[in-house]
Design goal:
The structure holds two protein chains of two kinds.
Chain A (H helix, E strand, L loop, with lengths): L3 E10 L2 E11 L4 E5 L6 H9 L6 E6 L2 E4 L12 E4 L11 H11 L4 H14 L15 H13 L5 E5 L7 H18 L2 E6 L2 H7 L2 E6 L2 E6 L1 H6 L4 H6 L4 E6 L6 E3 H10 L6 E6 L4 E4 L6 E10 L4 E6 L5 E6 L8 E6 L1 E5 L4
Parallel strand pairs in A: 3-8, 3-9, 6-7, 7-8
Antiparallel strand pairs in A: 1-2, 1-4, 4-5, 9-10, 11-13, 12-19, 13-19, 14-18, 15-16, 15-18, 16-17
Chain B lengths: L2 H11 L4 H31 L8 H7 L1 H34 L5 H13 L2 H11 L5 H6 L14 H25 L3 H9 L4 H30 L2 H7 L7 H10 L5 H29 L20 H28 L15 H8 L3 H33 L2 H16 L2 H12 L14 H25 L3 H9 L4 H29 L3 H6 L7 H10 L3 H25 L13
Classes of the chains: A alpha+beta, B mainly alpha.
Pfam family, one (chain A): ABC_tran
Organism (chain A): Marinomonas polaris DSM 16579
InterPro entries (chain A): AAA+_ATPase, ABC_SmlMolc_Importer, ABC_transporter-like_ATP-bd, ABC_transporter-like_CS, P-loop_NTPase
Amino acid sequence: MARLILDGVEKSFHGAPVVKGLNLTIEPGEFVALLGPSGCGKSTILRMLAGFENVSGGQIIHGDDCLSSSTRHVPTEERNFGMVFQSYALWPHMTVKENVGYPLKVQKTPVAERNKRIKDALEIVQLEEYADRLPAQLSGGQRQRVALARSLVTEPDVVLFDEPLANLDRHLRATMEETFRAFHKRTGATMVYVTHDQSEAMSLADKIAVLNKGQLVQWGTPQELYARPRNTWLANFIGRGSVLSVAAVAPSQYVSGTNLTELICQHSPDKAASSVLVRPQDIHFVSADDSALIVSVHSCIFRGERYDIELTLKDGQRLLAYSDVPMTLESLHQVRLGQAWSLESES
Amino acid sequence: MTPLLLKRRFMDGTSMDSQLRWLSIGLFMLIATLSVLPSLRLLVEALSHTAFSTSSPMAEVLRSERTWTALRNSFYTSGLGTLIAVILGCGFGFVVTLTNIRGRAIWVFCFMLPMMIPPQVTALSWLQLFGPASPILNTLGIAPALGSPQPMYSAEGIALLLGIQSAPLVFLALRTQLISLPQDLLEAAQLSRASQFRIWVDIILPLCRSAIIAGAALAFVSSLGNFGIPAMLGIPAGYIVLPTLIYQQMAGFGNDMLSQVAGLSMIIALLVLAGMLLQQWLQQRSCYALLGHTAQSLSFRLKQWRLPLEILLALVLCFILVAPLFALIVSSLVPALGMPLNADTITFAAFYEMIGRQGVTSRAFENSAFLAFFSALVLMLVSLPLGYLLMRLPMRTRAVIASLIEVPYAIPGIVLAIAFILLFAKPLPFIEVSLYGTLGIIFLAYLSCFLSVCLKPVLSAMSQLDPALEEAAQLAGARPIQRLMDIILPLTAPAFFAGGLLVFLISINELTVSALLWSAGNETLGVLIFNLDESGDSVLASAIAVLVVLLVAGLMSLLSLFAPRLPKGVIPWHG
């Protein structure tokens, strides 16, 4: 077990930068998600970790070894990494057993030991009875579990996941997430998980690196990202909520409800403005209150357990709130704001 | 295109393994030798004497009346042949692809058969169909009087056969385009209340016009380079086209003979390459981004017209395929030409003689089988690593190398043969071994010519492979050669064998290249049929041709068995 360090990693294709100056330190045994919209460079980072791509600048260090730098490149074959692909990448001409056992065969592990480890790996993903099937005879979820078993059979230092749930339907994803969590707990391997789905990243990862346009936007635990996003882009990207333009206020601090109401009232388009994030659960409907804001209902959408209410402030800004009861469109209400988080403007 | 550049390209993407480096250097040398060297040698020969003097060989070629006559004849026969090919190919293409006709696969197979039958066999079978000595006409008692002319010995006869032989090319180009037209387009037009006629004129024809022109261009260049048909039908009538002119000139002597022939070859090669470029350009242009579901392709209901149309197709196939082949079979069963076939005259003597008699016949069989088998084997072994390396190159470099490999196949066989004569007329340097006059020179020419035939299915299968499959093996710790053997080979094996079988199928019947490169003791099947017919032994020639057709049909059926496991388009008569 060793620490994985990305030190100023750069990558460009034909002169176009895809990853810019990325610094990350991943502790041994950590489950890390790389999260970002498509085209943000997260898959490229994963491919550089795997060794499919070399780095254009900076270096990737694993323990005491430099895996990649502009002068050095340890080939994929020699890295002892595991990977789970979006397309599963199971070899269709091999049975489940042969697929899982192939890494051991390449390493010339003795047959007896090989069989034992294949059995153990299949047991972890609960596919022992499918050992002699071909991949084509399995369902999508089962295939991904075979791929998982294959990636762990050599007890790799690091397991990489490239959007492994993207091809599965929604109810299967929940089960697979549970499988991944159990797998991480049991093996204790370092895991790097690429996804564009924030709820997947939030529920699985110990730490999340959010990326946008090849740059790291924020690096922290899911709770930190949710409660204290750095800038407006991230606030819009993670969780639900409303980003409001208010009168100038220092970034990266909590703003109390009363202060916030003042800031909203002081805001005018011709003065310097800041952005704050208001989560819907911090908006409370009240009957007559001095510090309350007057809002009108713009839309009301039934979501099952509650209603999503989109409110319009006096100056026309929109605010998302939750309600247990439906509300009439255009009706006027009073709300009290709990707290808000002030944001850096997007650079 | 230098190894250095290749190396840099590799470094650009991923790291380059030492295994891969050696593999790519070896294959670079191979492509250079097989694909680029022959064309370069020809170019040098044709240009080296082209000083701007009136006595240079090239000037002599251009001044000679025979050159211009042959050129005119070539254009006439190929032009008329293309017209016939377009009519036949489009007719079959539209009916077989767009309607609910029954037994589609069988129609396609039968219509593609003429393309795979060697031209000299096609010519021979049509010769048996007409003329005063035709055994089948004699059997039916309707043979023309002795001394009346053989109608096939004419420009129009040549054009007809060129048309039939290249009609499948037009058919294929059209069919590929038609298959990719989604049913939605038709339904949208129907919802706009267009009549069937308007749908044809406004939707279908514009969408496949470029495909038809591209197919026609291909038919034209293929006819221009065809040697077997004008050799069997034109030479006896003194009707000479460019490939036969080269063949005849090679028989002559003189100081400048080779240079003059090289000059002539350059003319054909340039014409053909220009045609190929035109065809490729058109094909690219015809690739409309077709939106919609392609799951269900277009289909017109024929209703009461279905049976009449099927009968019409059957009649056309009877005329272009069944009748000549039947004539060929009848000819192989009579004791001598001019005799009718009946219970008294039927004899298998020709077959016994062919199989039983030691000598030139069995030798030709052995030679051709040997050449075809080893060409297929060597090319299969080369295609695997070559395809693997090509797939790792950037798109543009890959396209350039693929076209270089395509050149020896695209230029007419007669031109390639001249290039090989020029290359190997002198003993090889250093080892002082002469390949000229051995089977070795034919073997090398086949390797050069058919590399692209074998490589194409392999490349197309590899490009459809999910790259993650190999990456997964890389993560498992497998080195390049191990990945090639464990992952890539098993997954592309059907394409790999299809490539090998196609090479075997084409090279076992090959005539054009071997017609110039053969020597006594080194005859091939194609040369044998040609020589037997030339010396008047048509019955024996027919017997061999019957076996050849059986062989072709058998191999084609064998390939069809692979079809479900192959990428679309690998087997021409499928899909």
